[in-house]
Amino acid sequence: MRHSAVLGTVSRVLSGVVLLLVAGALPWLSRIDPAAAVLRARYAELEPTPEALAAVRAQLGLDGGPVATSLRWWSGVMRGDLGRSWVSGGEIGPGVWSALGVSATLTLFSIAVALAVAVALVVPASLRVLRDRPQRGSGPVGVALTALPEFLLASVLLVVVAVQLRWLPPYGWTGIDTAILPSLALGIPAGGLLGRLLSDAVSGVAEERWVGVWRLAGAPRRVILAGVFRRAAAAVVDQLGLVLIGLLGGAVAVEQVFAIPGLGRYLLGAANAQDIPALQAGVLLMALAAVLVGVLTAVARRLLRGGPLPAGSLPPPPEARGDGRAARWTAGATLGLLLAILAFGLPRDPYAIAHARLAPPSLALPFGADASGRDLLARVAHGTIGTLTPAFLIVLCAIVIGLLLAVLGEVSRGPAEIANATPPILAGVIIAALMGPSVGGAALAVLWVTWPPLTSHAASLIDEVRAMPHIRWLPLTGASGSEIWVRHVLPAAVPPLLRHGMLRLPGVALALAALGFLGLGAQPPLPEWGLLLSEGIDYVERAPWTTVAPALALILTSVFAVALAGLRRSGRREPDPSSRRRFRLVASSSLDRRGKVSSAP
């Protein structure tokens, strides 16, 4: 255990240092003269003459290159000095600490909303557990909430609640009333994801044998439900930590919509302005926050499991029964709607300006027209191919990366936490600086932040599979290590990881759409979902169909992906009643003579 802790600490430190060095080398990697960037930011009216550039280099100490600049900044950090801004010349510390405080406060409010949404989604699964009829999933509601684009939800809340109804302030950060709308925009999608994962975990744990033992012993329902929740929470606490880190650093779009001076917006501004000291300071604080959250979630997981995990003491939860009919109907209905969009939209021209601006939906234009007079049905249909194809490839790559890094154990802990703490927007800025805004650059940026949750999940699955008693005995039968991995460990770990990847597919599509929304992905006039949302967001009040169409496509894709992932598990045969009675007889023999309930696993 001590060796694993040391490896995890070293991994976190090295990952943070590498990330900071990459951030510090951004101007050099992008082949842009840092002195020219600073001169343009400070003195836009001056010509970038060699003399002026030399003066800027001498003033900022840029002659030594990126490594010397980063090391000089690090020496100041050791003394508590985060340096001075290259753009304004002022001290960085007060501004970045203020931005971190704003983002931390917004994150806490958002987590409260997310937990409330997750609890509401888990209630049906809990009721089924109480009736001894566990069933997988939180239904299409949780999936649809997960698919809601945060920036679109923020814009809708801004227009409807703040502008039209005038119930809350439209922008700023002056009090708790200004935190409500952005917290809802961030917390609702995060709660949908947590609710879905927790519902699956609760339903799976309810199938474990110890639950049947507790029922036979006459344990109260509330005691059984509490034990199920404790076991399920241990399986998803890592995902809660990753969601928390992601909310802290990934709320750039929402902060932009509501003009909130948070850390994500601060980092985006620093990267765009090539303000390297400010960028490094923000990334440093975010990396420290990621490490802190990672340590706290590890402690919480150990407490929920009752201490370190002894080998063979904690078998993985069995797969819960699913409603096959509902899964088939949901998958069929959503697939039918998506195919209808493709069938009627692909033959149309997505670039032709042949209609009135913002024309409402009609028989000729089922989805209406955009602000340029282009057919929205055609653009959404072609955008389906342009958005889902890279999203699917990203998920597959992330699953492969997750499996490979999960085998390394604690060595991958640091890169996973640091990469997850990197906002997709910041990753998009860095990739765009190297490659220029493009679909490929956006895909690399999203892959950068997609593999950590899958790696964390893969590591948990592999640990639990290897802790199963029959896996521990396999070496005594003469099975080699590679045979155990290929024939036993991977077949047990890959299917749930694939289902998790399918659940992440809509989120990946949303991340690509977010980068396109902010101009860091696909560029006009490509019919990409993020661009469609960006082009229609200014007209959401007078022409809501300009944003409803791409948002509907995102939600349909999300519901179909999760329903399809549940078909295999929902097809499992129901246990025979006689076998259940035999199990109850065997389980009852494990009770002690006084009839007391054994402790939870």
From TrEMBL:
TM helices/strands, residue ranges: 12-30, 96-123, 143-167, 179-199, 240-259, 279-300, 326-346, 391-412, 424-451, 543-567
Keyword Cell inner membrane included in the entry's annotation: no
Keyword Electron transport recorded: no
GO cellular component: plasma membrane
A Pfam family recorded for this sequence: BPD_transp_1
Alphabetic keyword roster: Cell membrane, Membrane, Transmembrane, Transmembrane helix, Transport
Domain of life: Bacteria
Residue stretches making up the ABC transmembrane type-1 domain: 96-297, 380-565
PANTHER family listed in its UniProt record: DIPEPTIDE TRANSPORT SYSTEM PERMEASE PROTEIN DPPB-RELATED
Protein name: ABC transporter permease subunit
Protein's organism: Leucobacter ruminantium
Lineage start: Bacteria, Bacillati, Actinomycetota, Actinomycetes, Micrococcales
